[in-house]
Amino acid sequence: MKLVKLLANLGYGSRKEVQRLIRAGAVTDEGGCVLGGNDFPPHASIRFRGEPLDPPFPLLLMLNKPDGYTCSADDPGSTIYDLLPPRFALRNPLLSPVGRLDKDTTGLLILTDDGQLLHKIIHPKSGCLKTYHAVLDRPLEGHESALFASGELVLRNEAKPLLPAAMEALGEREARVTLHEGRYHQVRRMFAAAGNHVLTLRRISIGGLCLPEDLPEGEWRELTATERAAIFQL
User: Does the pLDDT value for residue 223 go beyond 90?
Assistant: First the structure.
């Protein structure tokens, strides 16, 4: 891929903007030699204003999503893209969340520009279970686990029962819930159907990938090869 197209696809600007940057000497190799727009240098050797380029396609990263951020670049207010380098929102292919989290839900969010991988992870048949930690408004009554696991729970305004889900009580008002699917506000609506209300909700794992303890809220990083493989470990 020519340097101009590569930089444009990575979100550094339109092709015309990138051409101007290249002519201004903003793009060099690791030795400091200025590169031309028709060059085909190895990705790892390219420097933009002295810094290594962003990772190429396919990009796969994790974000510890804070409260108050939506997962769509088109939504008003704060979005998850505000937590990433601005050019990440301009990448081609688009960098998208793998299963959205609600504005007031926190925790593990995977983003990728690989559409096939995205659909593989979110499809119920993939076996990538999603696990959440919920803090509740009222004490658990003891019937919730059986209700969620029954495969017969139908949410309000829906006709199709939920797939069986696992729930483990962690305390009087805390629970861990594991889902095979990801319907709109599913965990909150499940507890509402059980006569309770979710105060806070945090996703703690997807498949075998757990939210790292050393990744602060609002921070992100690329997944390692081991973490990529863990997504599909049941």
Answer: yes
